[in-house]
Q: What sequence folds into this?
């Protein structure tokens, strides 16, 4: 399952290449509460078909009725981009389903160049981070390689949107927890690969759409070409498999690196990596373990929810409170239980 950004861009490019008229809408600025963050995109085809989202649905309906002839509008046109604003008044906010006080601004691109979208998608499919620039008054679009992710920006005339390859997840260990986590990751737009040198595990894997790799995990991690949009999670419970893979992962830019295990096993892992492999407390700050946020999970499915929630928080730049970590939450619960039994 592709990320929503890639799905919107790919659909728009395919529709345009087929001779359809397309409107590409991007959330440029928001004030107050907003259903979708800046940079969110949707593509609208001339027959009213929509891919992506810029709100909870009401603004999409308004754009359909305004810009598609089949639904009573004037039909999609060609021409320079426009900036439109929704939710300026309380009545408009209520009409378009925006939260109280919410206002958002959209950039509407009428029939963007399918050749430039095709070029952009080629770079993204090759794993490159790209900066797409749109100057409104000239309708000039340029594409540049970007070394690091940048925040979306719009100054009233120029839009800068950094787009990256899809997020990827590499799982070490093909057990039951891995299957639940892979399923959730795919629903969240991650391309998932699972690695396990044990054929009996890989051969019984049941989640479709996941690349299965039989090989030693450290070799697989080294050859995976992982980047800033990759997360690597060790779930095999076997130090011979997990430890070396984690060492390779820590040498690269993956945004999340984690390993399953109890508090005791996680501490023993850290001690091994420091004593035998030259890691330090500083280098291991990037290693999550025990992984997940504390929700009292016991079953593989519940643990997968916990782990996926932590991965998404890191991906989205959210710093979680300390007491949501598994280790910290269990310490707090133990202290409470000790007080109650004293």
A:
């Amino acid at each position: 399952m592709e990320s929503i950004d890639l799905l919107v861009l790919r659909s728009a490019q395919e529709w345009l290449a087929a001779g359809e008229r397309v409107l590409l809408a991007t959330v440029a600025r928001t004030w107050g509460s907003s259903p979708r963050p800046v940079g969110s995109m949707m593509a609208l085809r001339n027959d009213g078909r929509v891919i992506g989202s810029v709100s909870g649905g009401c603004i999409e309906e308004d754009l359909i009725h305004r810009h598609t002839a089949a639904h009573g509008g004037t039909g999609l046109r060609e021409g320079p981009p426009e900036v439109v604003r929704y939710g300026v008044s309380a009545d408009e906010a209520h009409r378009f389903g925006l939260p109280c006080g919410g206002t958002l601004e959209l950039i509407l691109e009428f029939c963007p160049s399918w050749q430039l979208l095709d070029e952009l998608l080629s770079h993204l499919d090759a794993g490159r981070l790209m900066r797409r620039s749109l100057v409104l008054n000239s309708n000039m679009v340029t594409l540049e390689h970007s070394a690091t992710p940048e925040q979306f920006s719009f100054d009233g005339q120029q839009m800068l949107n950094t787009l990256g390859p899809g997020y990827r997840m590499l799982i070490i260990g093909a057990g039951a927890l891995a299957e639940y986590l892979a399923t959730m990751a795919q629903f969240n737009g991650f391309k998932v690969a699972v690695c396990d040198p044990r054929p009996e595990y890989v051969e019984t894997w049941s989640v479709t759409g996941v690349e299965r790799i039989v090989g030693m995990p450290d070799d697989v991690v080294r050859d995976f070409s992982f980047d800033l949009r990759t997360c690597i999670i060790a779930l095999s419970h076997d130090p011979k498999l997990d430890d070396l893979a984690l060492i390779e992962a820590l040498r690269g830019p993956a945004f999340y690196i984690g390993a399953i295990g109890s508090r005791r096993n996680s501490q023993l892992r850290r001690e091994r990596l420091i004593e035998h492999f030259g890691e330090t407390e500083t280098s291991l700050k990037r290693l999550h373990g025990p992984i997940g946020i504390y929700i009292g999970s016991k079953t593989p499915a519940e643990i997968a929810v916990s782990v996926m929630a932590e991965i998404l928080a890191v991906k989205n730049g959210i710093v979680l409170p300390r007491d949501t970590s598994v280790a910290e939450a269990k310490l707090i619960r133990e202290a409470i239980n000790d007080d109650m039994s004293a």
Summary: Residues 168-330 form a domain with the Rossmann fold fold (CATH 3.40.50.720).
